[in-house]
Amino acid sequence: MDSKFKSAFLALIALWVAITLISFPENTLEASLRGVDMWWGTVFPSLLPFFITAELLIGFGVVRFIGVLFEPIMRPLFNVPGVGSFVWAMGMASGYPSGAKLTARLRQENQLSKIEAERLVSFTNASNPLFIIAAVSVGFFHDATLGFLLAVVHYTSNALVGVCMRFYGRDNEKQQKGEKRKVTLKKAFLELHETRLKDKRPFGKIFGDAVINSVQTLLMIGGFIIMFSVFTSLLRAVGIATFISGGFAVILEALYLPSELALPIFSGLFEITTGAQLISNTNLDSLLAQAIGLSFIFAFNGFSVQAQVASILAETDIRFLPYFFARILHGILASGLVILLFPYLYTNQTDNPTISIPAFLTIEPTSSFSLYIFLQETGPIITISTLFIASLIMMHRLKSNFR
């Protein structure tokens, strides 16, 4: 009976989407263009180098080398192997869903157990600094100091999620406790060498596979971004978003937060960029409430990113539920940290905030914003060029297979 109900429910959802697509063509087109612009102008060119580089580092054994060196740090803190340090760093630098992509890749390489992979993916999917500081803080709020606060809160609470998740699955991991090995550069290099020798592919094949795998993943990500952009727009067009946000308003008021943030936060639960823009357009007396809303939707990742992660994890035996639970925990911790750190890290508390730089901010916000604008201008060219190169590689391989 449950199976039949599920079939009927999924069919009705698909039918509803089809009807609303036809009923609101202008909203659909506008949302699709917005999703495409975001994907090929920013997401694709910013993630592609990280994905390709990560594939090469895994193939050449560098990740294994890093894993051996960082085992004494990652194991006590997060109860994951040292290779988790590579995934964590790349996840913070490149943004979601890089953490899921790399975790799944290492699981396929048997460098992680199932439980370790579920722990690792729970705290390695983070928003990248370029999006937090340049796109949201400077682009939407015109306030770089806010970006510094949001970044510190986001990454600190993400690390706290990792510490909490270290206790996940311990009962099923009794065989994991073994002897402590002394870490040396020699042992790390030997692990690198052995890993490289196990991969019999020549350099050209490794590089080609890295490009094709990265492009395929980014095409999938683009599809999710466009569809969730359209889906969020349709929810607002038919009034469902407004109706549900009424319930959100009651919850926000119970938490002493302004009800005006209900619709923006609800939109952000589906698509982060849309939610962040709506939050920035909300006129409030204090920026603290907006910072809390932003931190929560950054931490929750949005259903768009979660769908991307679920699709990536589906290729392995890694379960999605621990990741989803961690997103809720991350949202709660991030919201709490904003309240605690706002008086200390946000130094530009005026009614009309202007761009200001705290003395301890090492990255020039204007350069971050310039990089973001540069990506928007040159991103489409990079995307089209990469898709063309990937097509040539695939055509060459198809010709080789037919010979």
UniProtKB/TrEMBL annotation:
Keyword Membrane: yes
Keyword tags: Membrane, Transmembrane, Transmembrane helix
Residue intervals of the Nucleoside transporter/FeoB GTPase Gate domain: 42-140
Domain of life where this protein originates: Bacteria
Spans through the membrane: 47-70, 120-141, 147-168, 206-231, 237-256, 286-303, 324-346, 369-393
One Pfam family linked to the record: Gate
Signal sequence, start to end: none
Family matches, as InterPro entries: Gate_dom, Spore_IM_YlbJ
UniProt keyword Nucleus present: no
Protein name per Swiss-Prot or TrEMBL: Sporulation integral membrane protein YlbJ
Upper classification of the organism: Bacteria, Bacillati, Bacillota, Bacilli, Bacillales
